[in-house]
Amino acid sequence: MKIQLPDKVQTIIETLTAAGYEAYAVGGCIRDCVLGRLPNDWDITTSATPEETKRLFARTFDTGIKHGTVTVLLEKEGFEVTTYRIDGDYEDGRHPKEVTFTASLEEDLRRRDFTMNAMAYNDQTGLVDIFGGIRDMEAGMIRCVGNAEERFTEDALRMLRAVRFSAQLGYRIEDGTKEAIRNLALGLKRISAERIQAELVKLVISEHPDYLRTAYETGITKQILPEFDLCMETPQNNPHHCYNVGEHILHSMPAVEADKVLRLGMLFHDIGKPQTMTVDAEGITHNKGHAEVGEQMTKQILRRLKFDNDTIAAVTKIVRFHDQEVGASPGGVRRAVNRTGEDMFRMLFAVKRADIAAQSAYLREEKLKKLAYIQELYDGICRRQECMSLKDLAVTGRDLIALGMTPGREIGTLLDRLLEIVLEEPERNTRDELLRICAEKNFLP
């Protein structure tokens, strides 16, 4: 197999080999090349020690020299070059307590997580695939290098990475590897929230976000997202639904584009249903208030996972408004936009379609027709540039102060009253008309 290495990667490898050392591109970049994908970055492994590598290049800096890694800079672009190594015990579930440099490429590849990530390449030797990475990729399989329990004990995050790679590639996890996850999932408790978050996001925006089901089946979500486990155990005996809450969530996620906020919104949109479920006399389940409860739960979960404030704000708004009823009239649409904000309202069309797609066929066509009609109304409102918020109102607080009102809360109250009028009758949104209304109703001093 011939892999076209970037010129700078080739330069580093050739410099090391010309000095008498071995050097290969290694890991995920080789996996991506085999898959026909463009790697995001290129890692290099070598028999040279960090000090020997540094002597060969004009510009380097110590990235993780304790673990054998230096970064080589070529024209302001950095490439990590790591010495072949054997890892010692992993005391913190992430980093080995100590590493031993080795002259053996095989020993270096042996410490890596999955067979597809344990391949190396240079032009002279070709592809080095000691542990069957190509075989497993051809079979569509995620398999640990060597003993799966050892690999997961070294770094528990590898269990979530296995599911994430499975979701990105559409691969299944090899039975022994999956069983090891079931046995060791509790180890994820030791992993930082930031690392969990990064892998969860990659899974959620993958080709198969519904493979989160595998994380549930292997006990991963019990450790990192126990609220989802409750959803998988909560039935929906209701004409509008054909899945339990968790399966409904899983079916809704692929129905929106692979955008972080949208996919997280679908993951959490019904997270409050287990806490709000009631059963009526006919045995029908209901979840009144689940959006409000889910909004608060989502905020807590996302904070626990160390998401940034912008993501938390956007996702919680999806959860809060995903189930809101929008009046099928121009006034109803304008009021709904005013409640949610214009950016969120646009996003909610995709959210509501995904929600409907993951429900039963009961009234599906009627729901979709109503949603399409509301979108037509909204598009017309936008074309006519009708007022939907205070920023579009034809009068401002300054106008009212100029007419004698005292700055304070009363101005905000008056502007809200004028907005209510304009949301129902947009043609009245002119400065003269709104000031006439104020005079007519004795709103002004």
Textual characterization of the structure:
This protein has 445 residues and is α+β, with helices and mostly antiparallel strands. Helices cover 51% and strands 10% of the residues. The protein contains 23 helices and 13 strands. The chain has helices spanning 7-18, 28-34, 50-56, 105-110, 133-138, 148-154, 157-169, 175-184, 193-204, 212-217, 220-224, 226-232, 245-252, 260-268, 273-276, 290-304, 309-321, 330-340, 342-357, 364-383, 397-402, 409-424, 431-440, and strands spanning 23-26, 43-46, 60-64, 69-74, 77-83, 85-87, 99-101, 120-122, 126-128, 141-142, 172-173, 278-279, 285-286. The strands form four sheets. A seven-stranded mixed sheet has the order 3-4-5-2-1-8-9. Strands 6-7 form a two-stranded antiparallel ribbon. A two-stranded parallel ribbon has the order 10-11. Helix 7 runs parallel beside helix 9. The longest helix is centred in the C-terminal third of the chain and has 20 residues, at 364-383. The chain starts with 6 loop residues before the first helix and ends in a 5-residue tail after the last helix.
Detail the topology: elements first, then pairings.
Elements: H1 7-18, E1 23-26, H2 28-34, E2 43-46, H3 50-56, E3 60-64, E4 69-74, E5 77-83, E6 85-87, E7 99-101, H4 105-110, E8 120-122, E9 126-128, H5 133-138, E10 141-142, H6 148-154, H7 157-169, E11 172-173, H8 175-184, H9 193-204, H10 212-217, H11 220-224, H12 226-232, H13 245-252, H14 260-268, H15 273-276, E12 278-279, E13 285-286, H16 290-304, H17 309-321, H18 330-340, H19 342-357, H20 364-383, H21 397-402, H22 409-424, H23 431-440
Parallel strand pairs: 2-5, 10-11
Antiparallel strand pairs: 1-2, 1-8, 3-4, 4-5, 6-7, 8-9, 12-13
